[in-house]
Design goal:
alpha/beta; seven-stranded mixed beta sheet; globular; 19% strand; three-stranded mixed beta sheet
């Protein structure tokens, strides 16, 4: 059951920002630290509302947060289908001026103002991929299967961006979400899985559009050489159990641990 926000008490003239947050399975463990850092550093001049998709209720949610039950779909569908989640709950964000999405393991490190995120006439925002920032087109990880709706022609594309951080005006973001959900459905119906899942579809959608591309400081991973410059830090999942553990893949987690133990054991015979 959805706990819809009562937004009748909003202040006049202050932009209202909706934040989509998906934390099914063990990704719930990231929520509290994400929320605390977001409240402190992200768009302090705006009213922020959080829309949280999870397969279990989250304890002690603030009044600005709405819990939305979302069944865990398993990898890669928990990430691939996120735009379907947003479209299904569009009625909840009708009063928002802007919408943003952040991966569960994002943390804000420095203050970020609205003037940084959107510059007219751009109505969408994305973050340059930290590994491909300022690199030539030939290194971009665009979808190369021409049968996929995420396919990008060799002569197209000027930027390659992260799939886990984006935003825009409410109308532009929801239009994008509806389009990507339809394209992903088409691919799945044809037995096609894009190379980088939702990231591939997001990058294809941005081709030829006027988008505010933020530099890689807005999405550096933990332990990256430029980590100290990060305004938004992407936490290292290995410190929280690893990808398999967070995705709920128990057997993969078990075999990974066993493999590590066996390597240690065999070293003792050398």
């Amino acid at each position: 059951m959805n706990n819809r926000l009562d937004m009748d008490d909003r202040k006049e003239g202050i932009a209202k920002v909706g934040i989509w947050y998906v934390c099914t399975g063990r990704y719930r463990r990231f929520w509290q630290a994400f929320f605390s850092s977001c409240e402190r550093f992200f768009l302090p001049e705006c009213e922020k509302y959080y829309f949280i998709f999870s397969d279990r209720p989250i304890k002690e949610l603030p009044p600005s947060a709405t819990y939305i039950y979302q069944k865990k779909l398993g990898w890669p569908y928990d990430t691939l289908m996120r735009y379907h989640f947003f479209v299904a709950q569009e009625a909840l964000v009708q009063d928002m001026d802007y919408l943003f999405f952040f991966n569960a393991n994002c943390r804000f490190r420095e203050r970020i103002h609205a003037s940084e995120c959107l510059h007219l006439p751009a109505d969408l925002m994305a973050v340059s991929h930290f590994e491909l920032d300022r690199k030539a087109r030939q290194y971009f990880m665009y979808e190369e299967n021409p049968l996929s709706t995420a396919y990008v022609y060799p002569h197209q594309g000027e930027h390659y961006v992260l799939g886990g951080i984006n935003g825009g005006t409410r109308d532009a973001f929801m239009k994008m979400s509806r389009t990507l959900a339809k394209q992903i459905d088409m691919d799945l119906a044809n037995g096609i899985m894009a190379r980088c899942h939702d990231e591939s579809h997001f990058n294809q959608y941005l081709v030829g559009r006027n988008v505010n591309i933020l530099d890689a400081r807005y999405g550096y991973p933990e332990a990256y050489p430029q980590e100290s410059d990060a305004k938004i830090l992407i936490l290292d999942k290995r410190k929280y159990g690893g990808h398999a553990y967070l995705r709920g893949n128990v057997w993969s987690t078990y075999w990974a641990k066993l493999k590590t133990k066996l390597k240690t054991w065999f070293r003792g015979f050398r």
